[in-house]
Amino acid sequence: MFIKNHSIYLLSVLLVLSCTSESEKLESALQSISVQDIQARIETLASDDFAGRAPSTPGEVKTINYLAQQFKEIGLKPGNGESYFQEVSLIKIYADKSMVFNISNGKKKLSPEFAKEFIGGTPQIGDYIMVDNSEIVFVGYGINAPEYGWNDYEGLDVKGKTVLMLINDPGYATSDSTLFEGRTMSLYGRWTYKFEEAARQGATAAIIIHETGAAAYPWGVVQNSWYDSKLYLEDNMFLKSDLQLQSWVTTECAQKLFDLAGVNYNEISVSASKRGFKPVKMNVTASVSIKNKVEYAKSNNVAAVWPGKDKSDEYLIYTAHWDHFGVNPAFEGDSVLNGAVDNATGTAALLEIAEAFTKLAKQQDRSVLFLAVTCEEQGLLGSEFYAKNPLFPLEKTVGVVNIDALNILGKTKDMTITGMGKSNLDHYAVSVLEKYGRYAAPDPMPEKGGYFRSDHISFVNAGVQALYLSRGVDNVEHGKKWGMEQTEKWIVENYHKPSDNYEPEKWDFEGMIEDLKIYFEVGYLISNAK
Ligand SMILES: [Zn+2]
């Protein structure tokens, strides 16, 4: 008996000792994460001085120099040889706001107004872009997905044709859990996929019908991202395709188009979400003429390394996009899109977490790369470029933790894992949250397709494990319903608008600080995992 008790006693002493030393190792690191620090960093990044951090503008120069200087001060090494910068080669194609876009049934013609009723541009680099009376085919959701047994292009040759399609996917439209991912937006629901598939199929032009619910954002967001110009990686698939036009029309404009074609829009969109849907020839044509303005541009990812001890050739990457939309004179009054929440907060988090790593009592095993990527808002281009041109081998990259927009609404019991169950890193977040008496929850609004809308997905596509961990909604003080409503309200009022400003008097930083500690500890665990 005595021996048994004694050994239990010894065991518990050892446990207490090991717990103490483990938390002691982390203590000064965790303490370095402070409200004052994160506030100062967000304030700088979201200031008008940084002009909305648009790629290839003076705002970029300020942003990347600030980040490099901060990483250096914190004590991190440059991630790209002697440099903190990884240059990303881009093509910038300006929107031709007076472009001609006509739909005709031979007798009557529709000429929708740019920005108000339709928006878009060419991904090609020729001086003049012409599409002459290209036959329009309604291809439902424009999806070719063998794994879901779905092909809207089956038996169809769209060479020379214009494809017209709905946003999102049949699972969303029907709430049928046996179709695609049910209400959760699948990869095939994304607009990026739809244009790419149209290009792969050989179409001449592509038109997506906007619908606020299905797209997960209002027309204004589409307008804003296509109004001035669009960036592409210099090496991109569209240049090798015949696609001359990528465009969106409003629901109202689509209605007129279907009326012109004598096709019932409501009926046909319902049938598009059912198995066995066949594409429909509309007996109307599209004509386009664009005076093209193209520039070659450079932007930069910012990369800084905190080396590991025993497995320094293996890497954990923290990513956050530094870019936002710059200045858009189309907005009256405040025309600077400062992107304070999206994503000055996440970029500031990189600095804060980097600093915490330097304060560890015992250096972690693996190296940690802090990667502030560019052109997320232009279609995840900076992260895609990195995944195609990695600074450290992807097969030595054990995981990616992506941070896009921190919590400003106060403490939450949960944090969200968008795409929960898709990576083998989830359990690190689950266990760290548990340690703090919190919990990991799946995306509360999976129909918005969040899993495909931030930089981790570029790594997933390249075969790297990635965790997209973000703010929770289960507010400690006000509950989950309130948290959902406030998050939704924030998106409607501020997402990709000039009102996404740094407002410390309105923000609650307590939840943000708690979340930062979680991000840090999750990375710490991964960097030391056996
Ligand atoms: Zn973002």
Strand residues, percent: 15-25%
User: Whole-number radius of gyration?
Assistant: 25 Å
Note poorly predicted spans. Answer: none
CATH architecture label name of the largest domain: 3-Layer(aba) Sandwich
CATH superfamily of the largest domain: Zn peptidases
Overall body shape: globular
Distance between the termini: 36 Å
Number of helices: 15
Mean pLDDT: 94
What distinguishing features does this structure have?
globular, 530 residues, binds zinc ion, eight-stranded mixed beta sheet, Aminopeptidase, 15 helices, 22 strands, 2 domains, single chain, ten-stranded mixed beta sheet
Describe the structure.
This protein is an alpha/beta fold and 530 residues long. The protein has 2 domains: 26-90 and 296-528, Aminopeptidase; 97-292, Glucose Oxidase, domain 1, CATH 3.50.30.30. The chain is 35% helix and 24% strand. The strands form 4 sheets. Strands 1, 2, 11, 14, 15, 18, 19, 20, 21 and 22 form a 10-stranded mixed beta sheet that branches. The protein has an 8-stranded mixed beta sheet with strand order 4-3-13-6-9-10-12-5, with helices on both faces. The protein has a two-stranded antiparallel sheet with strand order 7-8. Helix 1 crosses helix 10 (340-358), helix 2 (35-45) packs across helix 10 and helix 12 (426-435) crosses helix 15 (510-528). The radius of gyration is 25 Å and the shape is globular. The mean pLDDT is 94.
